[in-house]
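The passage that follows is intended for readers who have already worked through the single-chain material. We present the inputs for a multi-component assembly, then the predicted structure in tokenized form, and finally a short commentary. You are encouraged to pause after the input and sketch how you expect the pieces to fit together before reading on.
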Amino acid sequence: MPVVAIARRWALALLVAASCCCSLVLAAEHNYEAEQHFTLFSYSIQPPYIEENLQNRWWDFGGDAYMEVNNYIRLTPDKRSKNGHIWTKHPFTSNSWIVEFEFKIHGPSAGLHGDGLAFWYTKEKDSTGPVFGSKDKFDGLGVFFDTYANGRHHFSYPRINAMLGDGATEYDHDNDGVKNELGACEIEFRNNEQPTRARVRYVRETKTLTVQTNFYGGQGDADWVTCFVAENVRLPPTGYLGFSAHTGEVTDMHDLIQVKSQGISFSYKTGQTPPKDDYDAKKGNAQQQKVKGGSDKYGSSASSSSNRPPPPKTSSGGGVAHFFMVLFKLVLALVAIAAICFGVWKYAQRQEERSFKRF
Ligand SMILES: [Ca+2]
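Having made your guess, compare it with the prediction:
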């Protein structure tokens, strides 16, 4: 067989290998084939909010929160030093989930106003405290819709950011949580005519947290703007769902309009199984080691970090960043394969020229 024909076969084989590599890179991103969503009615709330007995069977209201039936749940009125919250009565047990909610933060002040509203997924609930009206040193996730800059920053407000609490680390109140933030974005969600919609999505299988907002009211993907995607986020296996808000010296009305929660289930590829979640086991070991070490109750920042899940990778606008990272890997693989093909082709060409010279 002529050398050129052999080279062509090699080049073809390498191209096939390249396309296989591309597929493997994409498949490695997930080990599931499809996802299904199902509504979790007992973790959702919408007008009129209460039943005939003037209670809600699934949610508890507390602090200064009150409701106007059919309109809103007002977590705080436009008055100083108020805080209010609502929490689910039962912990949320779905491994992976999406919580969509509508809220309005508004008030007459065009100058200073605050402080903001928080979304919670935590192991404990109902405790009033300094973090947007809820307790500090929380264990789980807080996503903050912050309207007042406590510190001085290069970015503007309103701003969304999030923190993964380990039950010991304090929220960085004076610096608006910047020290421990998972991700953030600056979005104008105050005094909008229409309620703002937000979506918090957690996929335990990939340990990915996504926060999005929607100002357009539509349900299409194009209507949702990604605030951030954080990877390697390890949440407690169960957590109460909650919302809280507070005012201090500055004020605003913080209204929650409705909450819709969905569970996510995955169909796995043949031979694939869901990854095991060892959140409590790992955390338990870390706590035992800490007790043996004789550190103080909350530990130093160093011991505290040993007790925490691994620090998540942050990517503001990470949906796009994640896409480009996959694209970059693919391009790199293709460039490598193309270089090998080019080398083989050049070699074959030289061999062919030599064989002509001989004759
Ligand atoms: Ca703040």
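Commentary: The longest strand covers residues 253-268. Residues 115, 146, 148, 150, 176 surround calcium ion (CB under 6 Å). How closely did your sketch match?
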